[in-house]
Structure formats: C-alpha cells, structure tokens
Design goal:
Elements (H helix, E strand, L loop, with lengths): L27 H6 L3 H14 L1 H15 L5 H24 L3 H9 L14 H15 L2 H9 L2 H7 L3 H11 L3 H15 L9 H17 L7 H7 L4 H12 L1
Keywords: Cytoplasm, Nucleus, Signalosome
Pfam family, one: PCI
Subcellular location: Cytoplasm; Nucleus
Length: 245
C-alpha cells in the first residue's frame, strides 16, 4: 500500500540551510555589481551567513550599500554582524601570530559597537591592538594608524599605560617605554588570549626599538645606547649581535 507523504513533512525534501562554504572562487565585487537595491544587500548577507572566508568582505560591502538607504534597522543589523565577524578575525590573526594583520584588525574596531563581554572588552582591544602595532608598525604607520587615529584613541583612553607606552616609543624614549612594558608584563601573562604571545611581542618591540635607535646614525655611542635601553654595554653588544645574525 502506497502512502502519500506531504513534501512539507518529508525531512529529506526540506531545504538544506545549515551549510558552510570554505573554498569559494567567487569574485564578490563582480557578483554584487550584477544586482542593485535590496537584492544586492540581501545576497551579500546570504554569502556572509554561509561563507566564513568571505564574511567580513561581504558584510563590509553590504554595509556600504545600505548606508545609501534610509534603512536604519538593516544598517544596525549588518553593523552588528560585521562587528561580531571582525572580533573573531582579530583573535584568529593573533592566535596565528600574524601580528601586523591582528593590529590592523584591532585598529578597525568601532568603539560604539565593541560591547562583547563574552569574548573581548574594549580594554582588550586597546592592549592587543597597541602591542601588536608596536611590534610590527614602523614610525610612519604608528603615527598614521595609531597615534593619529581618532577612533582608536577612544580605546587607548581606557588603558592610559598602553597609550603612554606608545607615545614613549614614538618619541624614542625607549628606557621609559621598556620599563613601563616590564611593569605590566605580569598582568598580561594572566590574559588567556595574549599570554602565549607576550614574550614574542616584547622581543619584537625591543628589536624594533633597537633598529629605530640606530637608523638615524652612521655610528652610535654604545654607552649612550646602553643607557637608553637600561642595560650594560656587554649585554647590548650580545643583543645586537643576535639581532644582526
């Protein structure tokens, strides 16, 4: 005896919505250009929901398009999704030791949409972003992307010690900068996300300081340099030898 089954009640005929695309070859800009209005925004959101590699890019594009409309609710929803996507990306870049990329991601954080206490606090953004920037940015990048950033300034106001360290570093006051870093090191080692990277970040920051100290000079007075870095001439010579090698 044949029993008719309502297609709507047959689980095998139900649409598959819980899937993830990991290896897309889609040109997102070209794809989005094929549509307009609400359809373009909805298609970009759909891609963001199902494709982690394209999620941030798709949401950024959707946000730029929705800004041209008066749909405040949709703007806030997409902005929320983008904030959630980028916070995960920041920690992923940090975990992968891609410190420059991590710095760039943290510096893009929006202070008004950074309330995710289940994962990161605004103070975390200031500390993680500030240290990653110090470890990887040159002077021009530090000035342009950190010191002159009106948005990241709001985060740094929550962590004045990190702010002062950045300014000391930029002003070539390396002894004060490194001393302040040492003073906060123990607290950083209690941070579950940052702790595995503290030693590497500190080494990179110190190495960058040594390089920047040398850069304006054909030769440098080792005694003055040792004083600037709060160390001995012998220890400094060993450190510079390792840096050159």
């Amino acid at each position: 005896m044949q029993i008719d089954v309502d297609p709507q009640e047959d689980p095998q005929s139900a649409p598959d919505v819980n899937y993830v695309v990991e290896n897309p070859t889609l040109d997102l800009e070209q794809y989005a250009a094929s549509y307009s209005g609400l359809m373009r925004i909805e298609r970009l959101q759909f891609i963001a929901d199902h494709c982690p590699p394209l999620r941030v890019e798709a949401l950024k594009m959707a946000l730029s398009f929705v800004q041209r409309t008066f749909n405040v609710d949709m703007y806030e929803e997409i902005h929320r999704k983008l904030s959630e996507a980028t916070r995960g990306r920041r920690l992923a870049e940090l975990a992968a030791r891609k410190y420059k990329q991590a710095a760039k991601c943290f510096l893009l954080a929006s202070f008004d949409h950074c309330d995710f206490p289940e994962l990161l606090s605004p103070s975390n953004v200031a500390v993680y972003g500030g240290l990653c920037a110090l470890a990887t940015f040159d002077r021009q990048e530090l000035q342009r992307n950190v010191i002159s950033s009106s948005s990241f300034k709001l985060f740094l106001e929550l962590e004045p010690q990190v702010r002062d360290i950045i300014f000391k570093f930029y002003e070539s006051k390396y002894a004060s900068c490194l001393k302040m870093l040492d003073e906060m090191k123990d607290n950083l080692l209690l941070d579950m996300y940052l702790a595995p990277h503290v030693r590497t970040l500190y080494t990179q920051i110190r190495n960058r300081a040594l390089i920047q100290y040398f850069s304006p000079y054909v030769s440098a007075d080792m005694r003055k340099m040792a004083t600037a870095f709060n160390t001995t001439v012998a220890a400094l010579e060993d450190e510079l030898t390792q840096l050159i090698l």
